[in-house]
Amino acid sequence: MIKAAIIDDEPFAIENVELLLKENFQEIKIVGTGNSVEEGVKLIESKDPNLLFLDIEMPFGSGFDLLERFPNPKFRVIFITAYNQYAVKAFRCSATDYLLKPIDIEEFVQAVSRTKETIDEDMQQRYQLLQEHLQNNSTKRIAFPTHQGIEFINWDQIIRVEADRSYASLHMKENESILVSKSLREVEDLLPSDQFFRPHKSHLIRIDLVRRYLRTESLIEMEDGSRVELSRRRKDAFLEVMC
Question: Lower CB count within 10 Å: N or C terminus of the chain?
Fold first, then answer.
């Protein structure tokens, strides 16, 4: 999930950006707005946004003054201003785009789409580095991306994994379920192959947490009481693993 903040001294300008995001980018969550440099600094420090919509000329400081407070920003910046003379300086400050007021809707959508791609790439790279770090330092802990952020999960707490469209639901001990932003196939690649088995195209199960096999119904019952279908073509492989 991409978190966005809007810093502008004009309430109408903030409302306009909020409306455009709501209509065109529902996957972007607005975590806060501010009307000045100081409000913007506090908002960034408390909410840690990925994307900043930033006005340039504001009372008691400019958008450039705000960026000077963050010499190594983790966020991307789209400047939105009524003045075109700042464009060169804006891009020297590593802005990803520069939009003039009044905002052209098509230009706004294109600018946010381009910026969103770079944020997605950054987040994926950070996730991969984190995953490699965990794999090098722990045999059980795995980082799973979710809509809220990243969940750090010990795989030995997973009973089974169920496909949920392009996502996967991890069914844990203590009756907890966690929806992760990965497909069942991607989750399977992260889990130890000698501990999990694929009895059906929509499920993964922990081998050592199987309670029984119900032959007449072709179902596998897990320790938590849940039952998972065993496909006909996977039956022999399942029995070989279990026996």
Answer: C
